[in-house]
Give the backbone structure.
Amino acid sequence: MGKNNLVQALISRALASCLCTALTIAVSGGAVAQDRLNISEVKDGLHVITGPGGNIGVRLTPEGVILIDNKFPQDFEEIRSLVADVTDLPVRYVINTHHHGDHSGSNPGFLQIAEVIAHRNARENMLRGNQEGLPRTIYTEQTSVILGGIEVQVFHLGRGHTNGDSVVYFPDLKTVHGGDLLHGIAPFIDYANGGSSRGWVGTMNNILALDFNTAIPGHGEIMDRRDVLNFRNQMEAVRARMAGLIRGGLSIGDASDQIIDSDLSWTQADNGLFMQRSIPGFYNEIFTEIQ
Ligand SMILES: [Zn+2]
């Protein structure tokens, strides 16, 4: 595949799942940089791999590594190389926070060396989307991976970004990996795959019921508990604003312009997924709710 074709493939793959701002910037800059991914420590025993695609959690145990998400298909070898920078032990488990290809894209590679786990709905979404690398292990409400004396808990806490989101909790580190239920810029509500802003608020409250002080979002910088609380509050605020506008007679065609509010950063992010891809589904959801 030539470079331009590769770039096109990267763009269409990103658009097909979660548009990644960083990727778009890298591509529009005229070249796809090598070694685009970085690994850094979040807490003792937990690292994060950043760069284009969803943030990867790297949980180290004395018996191997548990990965949370695995970016795009082309990232498989670079992910393994970065993990090898922090441990000699192999990746034993991969947890997919949801089905989007910028979080589960390297499943085909990891299925050769590890067990891949996802929520039942996430697997069904992958199946319907003809994605490669279907998880062999699924759950519906809660499961755990226990490796090397360390328990990593996996919860489905309700609808939100999709209908198959997993929240991964590291109780000994008081840290969660929220997948795209948490986003550093603005969230995407994937209505075609069961997403719901109403469900999202409830799911956020369930996350906040966990005892944590640090959160890895699907995209963006590491968060603390206040950041997560602010995210929940903005979800409630954009819902209230849309409801008020609809009660005032807002048409769906004017929703993108009228929702913009200087107090709501998601509506200010022109290139964010909330404005680019979540409206008009968001309008339709709120419209139906308040009838
Ligand atoms: Zn996503």
About this structure: The radius of gyration is 19 Å. The longest helix spans residues 225-247.
